[in-house]
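Let's inspect one such protein example.
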Amino acid sequence: MNRKARDMVPVRIASISVDSLNNTPVILLRPTADDGSFEGENVLPIWIGHPEAMAILLGIQGIEAPRPLTHDLISNTLERLGHSLDRVLITRIEEGTFYAELVLRGPLGEVRIDARPSDSMALAVRAGCPIYVAEAVLEEASVVPEPAEDEEDELERFREFLDHVEPSDFSD
């Protein structure tokens, strides 16, 4: 994808942690260079729900649940219908809410589907596809993180969250 023509910047998930103020998971996305290495200091924080954080973490770690979770179901359905997830686009931010699109490839060509960024990232880690963020979104919402005073405390809070979450917490 021509970065300049599309005004999209490739990013990767740099980390998943828990916001200590409200105990909410936050994904930190960082722009990447052409070789896939992180580029610059900026990060784009996107606060997400606990189920989506777990789905993203399971996808990153390649862990399969005993029964397909929602994101596994969607991924499997797309595959069975002859589609693949080509890329995820985080396209805009309005009043603090991020918007994304899934870009699918299939028998009829390219199809775009409106989706939440958290669900999109959960699918992207399963499909191994790239994630892009609009330059305007990065300009508006990215930050340069302050050095963490005690990163170990933050890691411990996230470990506690993971220790108390069960796959059955996400079933119907």
Observations:
- Helices lie at 3-6, 50-61, 70-80, 117-127, 135-141, 151-163.
- Residues 1-5 have pLDDT under 50 and may be disordered.
